[in-house]
């Protein structure tokens, strides 16, 4: 089974564009990948997939978006032991601190984290989309 849920939050579409390209790369590598807005999926539904690719931009002051995504991840966090997880998201003026913190939380939850989280500055350009497809293909093979 190689069934991936790509679950994202996105305000202005940049992380959503990453999610779509990651799913495309995963499908091209032979996996099944479904793209879901975080508001459209429960924690139980998410855990029904073999692998989770989770996407959220840097918000607030270098944190996950606090109203929808953070509560979802906080509820998922304690149940990620042994789960294959990939992290991604877009950022603006920062240096990726939100992603480093998110990786530490995910590793602390004993998930099997796929590499480093993929971060892209603002909207992904062609090169960024290619990185996303490659990330998705790599996660499909993970
Ligand atoms: C309220 C708000 C807070 C933000 N906080 C950060 C931040 O702490 N660090 C950063 O690098 N970018 C920050 N950004 C920039 C976003 O991460 C960036 O625009 C990103 O591309 C948005 O992704 P999205 O289109 O998926 O919503 C912030 C943007 C907004 C609107």
Q: Might you state the CATH topology name?
A: Rossmann fold
Can you give the helix content as a percent range?
Answer: 40-55%
For the biggest sheet, the summary is: 6 strands, parallel
The gross shape turns out to be: globular
Q: Rg from C-alpha positions?
A: 13 Å
Count of distinct strands: 6
Total separate domains: 1
Low confidence ranges: none
The first-level CATH class is given as: Alpha Beta
Structural class: alpha/beta
Quote the beta fraction: 15-25%
Written account of the structure:
- The protein is an alpha/beta fold and 142 residues long.
- The protein has one domain (3-141): Flavodoxin domain (Rossmann fold, 3-Layer(aba) Sandwich).
- 40% of the residues lie in helices and 22% in strands.
- It has helices spanning 14-28, 43-47, 69-77, 97-108, 126-141, and strands at 3-8, 32-37, 51-55, 84-91, 112-113, 118-121.
- Strands 1, 2, 3, 4, 5 and 6 form a six-stranded parallel beta sheet that branches.
- The longest helix is centred in the C-terminal third of the chain and has 16 residues, at 126-141.
- The radius of gyration is 13 Å and the shape is globular.
- The model has no long low-confidence stretch (mean pLDDT 98).
- Bound molecules: flavin mononucleotide (FMN).
- Residues 10-15, 57-62, 90-94, 122 line the site of flavin mononucleotide (FMN).
Brief characterization of the structure:
The chain has about 140 residues and is α/β, with parallel strands linked by helices.
């Amino acid at each position: 089974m190689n069934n991936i849920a790509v679950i994202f939050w996105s305000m202005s579409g940049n992380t959503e564009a990453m999610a779509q390209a990651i799913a495309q790369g995963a499908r091209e590598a032979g996996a099944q990948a479904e793209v879901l807005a975080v508001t459209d999926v429960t924690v139980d539904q998410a855990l029904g997939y073999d692998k989770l690719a989770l996407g959220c931009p840097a918000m607030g002051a270098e944190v996950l978006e606090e109203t929808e995504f953070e509560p979802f991840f906080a509820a998922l966090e304690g149940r990620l032991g042994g789960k294959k997880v990939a992290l991604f998201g877009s950022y603006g003026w920062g240096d990726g601190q939100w992603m480093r913190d998110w990786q530490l939380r995910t590793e602390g939850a004993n998930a099997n984290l796929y590499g480093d989280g993929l971060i892209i500055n603002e909207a992904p350009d062609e090169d960024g989309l290619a990185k996303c497809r490659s990330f998705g293909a790599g996660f499909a093979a993970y």
